[in-house]
Amino acid sequence: MSGWREDELEKALLEAKARIESMVALHRDRSSQEQLITVVDNAYDVVLETAGGLVKEARTSIDIIHARRPSRMDRLQRRSDQVERGLLYGAQEGVTIRLLTTPTLLDDDFVREQLGRERPVAIRVAHMPPLQALIVDDSVALVVAESAAGRRTSVIRVAELLHSLRMLFESIWKDAFRAGERFVFGDRTRAAFARRILRYLQAGVTDEVAARELTVSVRTYRRYVADIMSQLGANSRFQAGVRAAELGLLPPTPGAEPNGRG
């Protein structure tokens, strides 16, 4: 995904979030008796229980935006991932489930679990501002949004808000990368070699330095780079690095960056 496309997408997401938050505030004042918007306690267990109930009620579809800021403990233990993905297995048979998440929150174990399922969860990855949304049957949604006023959790049944969430989801989904999409560079040795090249590209290492460290000629190195770019569908080295990061081909924090930046 090119830089300008990411900027445009993030702008659209932020505008949509602002619209949703303002409409939530408006409808809370106007329709409290109609129960079109129900405020949910922000306690994790309460939110989890509410989400689980909506998942079990689904008849046709569940669409999820999973883009919260993970806590340090989440990153170390990933306990919340295991609990949250377990909720989806409570959905009735035949319900279509789509999950949008970020590279940071992508759960590789959950992606692998889908491979052997008859009706797998469709998972795509994109960079998104923090937002949690569970949309069920296009008729109700659970939204957890961060704002200047703090975290807000609501169950929403307002048609305009549901339409905004649907449009937001679809606009991200069509450009997001499929989770688990992996490019086969050959055998294990060639795959490891390709990842080293991707790290050099990510670090901005010159072709001459990279070729020397890999003990290949500059011409051979450039041929490898061209091949990797082709497999990633990238038109530039920068795009190759962005796409590789999106697809999880590069670790979030490389152990040690190569020497010889140029």
From TrEMBL:
Listed InterPro entries: Sig_transdc_resp-reg_C-effctor, TrmB-like, Tscrpt_reg_LuxR_C, WH-like_DNA-bd_sf
Tree of life domain: Bacteria
Gene Ontology annotations of biological process type: regulation of DNA-templated transcription
GO molecular function: DNA binding
Coiled-coil residue windows: none
Entry-linked PANTHER family: HTH-TYPE TRANSCRIPTIONAL REGULATOR TRMBL2
Protein name (database record): Uncharacterized protein
Source organism of the structure: Streptomyces malaysiensis
